[in-house]
């Protein structure tokens, strides 16, 4: 027994480095925590490095309040799609039709509101219902008829793109009602005294900081109660400080311009709602189960067909929402809308931590992946990189993210 104790006793610090032992111990703890939580922290670190790189490269233009606001507005519809796509990929499937479906819903919205003068709230509800129906039809073929999702959604991509051309007759149709435009381009109203900041945005930002701290502390307590592995305390505190600092910086930047965009609130509701669903609801656990190990999920009583059907129904409804936001932002429906949106959403999901084999991923990860792509696009435009090299760089980032996932799995399994 005494031999074991002696073997585990750390060697004394070398002369002249009396204070370095504690620092080395902290560093080892942090590195151990990083290795155990590589998937969780890897893309956050990458996002921070990309932001820092382009902030320096663009002489600070990337972090101008106007540019940060535009970054949210320009990527809102991709982030909405990425949330739904993450669920689809976690369940072990893929959806190639979402870009065409966003264009189709935009054309339906234009036909209902512009050609037929239907009140915009009614038209929005009808469009969301049509999107859900489109997703449900595809989900039925995939879940109950057993046709691979790649084939069904590839057919859907062609079908919805053709229907868009038919409804719009090959022409751009607009404009949309101003109230609908505010959803995609508007900002929260000014309230309270003049403080040189947007007061309502500050209030929402501080509320979000309190929510993030509460959520992180509660999740850690729950993991400890169930004897689950958690990061070291010092690493956990460092993570909290980083999260709070990021939210505070974004809040101050937005509040110093026009305030938080309306679409940012929509995204916030989606992230919180779907994050809770995937972490705490039974349906969320079932989605992870069928993507991680379908035979075992069936033996456990998971209704895999029903879950798959609901995942695609949800994807259709989120694609409809993205289509409405996109059409409202550009104030017109176009036959060419939504091109490559499905690829952007898929890339955001994989960059954000989804696994090719299914069963792995988070809603927050999809948002982080979408922001990585958004910052790359925005930063490369600011520094004058051509669209040809932009495609090369984004392809390399996607390949690196998937390669990192494969490497991480092999390292954990070894």
Automatic annotation (TrEMBL):
The keyword DNA-binding does not apply. Keywords: Cell inner membrane, Cell membrane, Membrane, Sugar transport, Transmembrane, Transmembrane helix, Transport. It is found in: Cell membrane. It is a multi-pass membrane protein. Its main location: membrane. Residues 1-20 are annotated as: Disordered. The chain crosses the membrane at residues 41-58, 70-89, 96-114, 120-143, 150-168, 197-214, 235-254, 260-278, 307-330, 350-376. Pfam families: BPD_transp_2 (PF02653). PANTHER family: ABC TRANSPORTER PERMEASE PROTEIN YPHD-RELATED-RELATED, XYLOSE TRANSPORT SYSTEM PERMEASE PROTEIN XYLH. Part of the binding-protein-dependent transport system for D-xylose. Probably responsible for the translocation of the substrate across the membrane. This is Xylose transport system permease protein XylH. It comes from Streptomyces marokkonensis.
């Amino acid at each position: 027994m005494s031999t074991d104790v002696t073997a585990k006793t750390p060697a004394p610090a070398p002369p002249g480095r009396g204070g370095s032992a504690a620092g080395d111990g902290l560093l080892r703890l942090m590195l151990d925590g990083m290795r155990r939580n590589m998937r969780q922290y890897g893309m956050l670190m990458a996002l921070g490095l990309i932001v820092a790189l382009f902030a320096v490269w663009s002489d600070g233009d990337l972090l101008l309040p106007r540019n940060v606001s535009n970054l949210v507005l320009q990527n809102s519809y991709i982030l909405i799609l990425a949330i739904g796509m993450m669920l689809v990929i976690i369940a072990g499937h893929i959806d190639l039709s979402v870009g065409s479906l966003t264009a189709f819903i935009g054309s339906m919205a234009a036909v209902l509101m512009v050609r037929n003068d239907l009140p915009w709230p009614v038209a929005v509800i009808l469009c969301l219902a049509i999107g859900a129906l489109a997703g449900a039809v595809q989900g039925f073929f995939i879940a109950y008829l057993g046709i691979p999702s790649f084939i069904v959604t590839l057919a859907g991509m062609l079908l919805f793109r053709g229907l868009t051309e038919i409804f719009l007759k090959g022409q751009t149709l607009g404009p949309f009602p101003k109230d609908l435009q505010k959803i995609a381009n508007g900002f929260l109203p000014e309230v309270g005294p003049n403080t040189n900041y947007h007061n309502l945005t500050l209030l929402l930002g501080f509320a979000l900081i309190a929510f993030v701290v509460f959520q992180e502390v509660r999740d850690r307590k729950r993991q400890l109660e169930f004897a689950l592995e958690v990061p070291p305390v010092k690493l956990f505190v460092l993570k909290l400080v980083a999260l709070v600092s990021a939210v505070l910086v974004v809040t101050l930047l937005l509040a110093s311009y026009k305030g938080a965009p309306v679409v940012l609130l929509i995204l916030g509701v989606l992230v919180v709602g779907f994050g809770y669903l995937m972490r705490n609801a039974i349906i969320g656990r079932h989605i992870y189960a069928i993507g991680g190990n379908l035979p075992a999920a069936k033996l456990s009583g998971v209704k895999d067909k029903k879950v798959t059907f609901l995942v695609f129904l949800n994807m259709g409804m989120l694609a409809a929402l993205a289509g409405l936001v996109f059409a409202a932002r550009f104030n017109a429906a176009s036959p060419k809308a939504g091109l490559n949106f499905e690829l952007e959403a898929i890339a955001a999901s994989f960059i954000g931590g989804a696994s090719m084999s299914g069963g792995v991923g988070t809603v927050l990860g999809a948002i982080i992946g979408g922001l990585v792509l958004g910052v790359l696009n925005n930063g490369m435009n600011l520094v004058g990189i051509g669209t040809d090299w932009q495609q090369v760089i984004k392809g390399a980032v996607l390949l690196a993210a998937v390669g990192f996932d494969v490497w991480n799995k092999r390292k954990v399994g070894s």
